Amino acid sequence: MPDPPVVATIGRCFNRVVDLDELRTLLARHARSDATTAIDGVLVSKVEQATAPSPAMSGTVLALIAQGAKRIALGDRVYEYRAGQYLVASVDLPITGHYTEAGPERPALGFGLTLHPAAIAELLLEADPGDLPPAGGGAPSGMAVSDAPGELVDAVIRLLRLLDRPRDMTVLAPMIKREILWRLIAGEQGAVVRHLGLADSSLTHIARAVRWIREHYPQSFRVEDLARLCGMSLSAFYRNFHAVTAMSPIQFQKQIRLQEARLLLATHPGDVTGIGYRVGYDSPSQFSREYRRRFGVPPSQDAAHLRGSTLHPAPTLA
């Protein structure tokens, strides 16, 4: 007869399989083309074929995969996660992502929850300090992947069940979302999530710089001025910015410029030169060279391909 610890392990594995089966059923039933649901901040994704790598913004999000697999490139880092694993994006970052395992008979299925710093800060204020993970020293990476514990999967399932019970949604959904946040804070990536809710954390300061670059991406800037905006020395700013984004500030700006250029080309395919100037390039040749390096084809050729198509940023599950 198996030892009690072996029996317990088998029981946990069985429960995990059952939980993922129910999670897959709920996600498949409630998936919509725009990924949104009736619960604010909750996203559901269903993808029926492996996709080519495409640029997007990560958002600040928890993304849990129930079926399939996804690969994401952030700067010089690559993250892969699959069924039973979750990814946390604590800063809205320019990424290149694609599903590597998906098909009509077995689509990729994922759950997403938008992370709001204010909601995390509220939980941190209510928690006993002894129950919180250490915040850590410098800024953590803006993305992290872990295996999803059973308690987190269970809370996600209970939240998705509310989509079939609209009468209970208004009262219970906020409570379960708070539970999910707490599972993240108390889990393996708790330090990353905790930084998101701390107003004076290194991550929060870098997020301020990220927002500034996104809002002023066509403008040239001095890195010294961004460091001053964040209240950091130049060396500390460089170090923390790269830790969070896997890029330098100038590389980050370039990613934003080129992604915005591609969106503009989808609606104005005949104005390649004008779009290059609009996103901040002074030289059409430099714009064409960097665009080709990023997307594999020059902007004029990509514009012809995009003509008639629509490239609107959709809710993403990172």
Automatic annotation (TrEMBL):
SMART domains: HTH_ARAC (SM00342). GO terms for molecular function: DNA-binding transcription factor activity; sequence-specific DNA binding. This is AraC-like DNA-binding protein. It comes from Actinoallomurus bryophytorum. Residues 207-305 form the HTH araC/xylS-type domain. It comes from the Bacteria. Pfam families: AraC_N (PF06719), HTH_18 (PF12833). Gene3D superfamilies: Homeodomain-like. Keywords: DNA-binding, Transcription, Transcription regulation. Signal peptide: none annotated. The keyword DNA-binding applies. Residues 299-318 are annotated as: Disordered.
